Amino acid sequence: MRQGKTSQRHSFFLIAAAVGAMACGALAHAATVTFAQFQQNPASQGFVYANPSVAGAPATFNTVSGGIPVAFEFSNIAGLPTDLQGVQNATLTMTSQSIGTASQPAAGLDEAAFRTTLTFTRDAAAAEGSGSRTNLLTVIQTGDLIGLDGGSTVSLQAPLRTVGGLPVTSANYTSDFLAFPISAGGAIESFSSLNPSGLVFTPTVTGGSSGTLANFTAAGTGTFDIASTTGSGPPVVPEPATLGIVGVGILALLLRRRAGSSLARSL
What we know:
The structure is a single chain. The protein contains 2 helices and 15 strands. A hairpin with a 6-residue loop joins strand 13 and strand 14. The strands form 2 sheets. Strands 1-4-5-6-7-8-12-15 form an 8-stranded antiparallel beta barrel. Strands 9-10 form a two-stranded antiparallel ribbon. It is α+β, with helices and mostly antiparallel strands.
C-alpha cells in the first residue's frame, strides 16, 4: 500500500513538472498584444505633477480632483460583448508617487521612477460583467517618467519586459469584464502640452545628476499590453449563467465520485 501511494505521489510530481514546463514554454513564445487604450475627451490639462511641500516626501503625478473624462476602448479581445465594443465613456482617476529623486542619466534626458494606479470607471454600468460592472480597467504599474529636458512631452513607461526568455510584469490589471490568467503586462502613458515651461530638471548640486522636476500640468493618452500565447487579448469574464452551469457540472461530478466511493466501501 505504501509503495502504491509513493508511486502516485511520484506520478503527480512528474505531471506537475510537465505542466509547468509546458506553461513556461508557452510563455516563452508569447506575443505582446495591445488590448486597451484611452484618450482624453475632451483634451485638457487634467494631469498635475507636483513637488512635495515637505522635504523628503515623494512627488505626485495625479489627475485633477474627481478624475477626468476619457474615451476608453478595448481591442483584440475575442467574444467581447456588443455594448463593450467601441468607445466607452469613462472617468479616469490616476494617483502616482515618485520613488526616490529625479535624475539625468544622460545629458538632456530627465527621468524619475513612479508607482502609479489608474482606474477607468464606466459612466454607466454595463449589462455584463462582475462586481459593479463599471470597472473597465484598473492598472497598477511601476515604471519611469521619461522626457527630454525642456521638452513639451513626457511619458510614464512601464513596458512589458523579458527576462530569461519569459515575460515579466511591469503592470498588473483587474477588470469587471476581463480575466487576466497571465499577470505579465506593460503600460505606457504619454503626456503632452506641458505647462508652464515644459519638462525642467534642477540638480540638487550644481552639475549633479540627481534633483527635482519643476511642477507642470499636461494632457494625456495611453495604451495597455499583455503577454499572449493566442495572439489576442485577455478572455472575457464568464457570464453568471455560464458560471452556474459549470458549478452544477462540478457538483454533479463530486456527487458521482462520492457515490462511487461509498459503493466501493460497502462492497
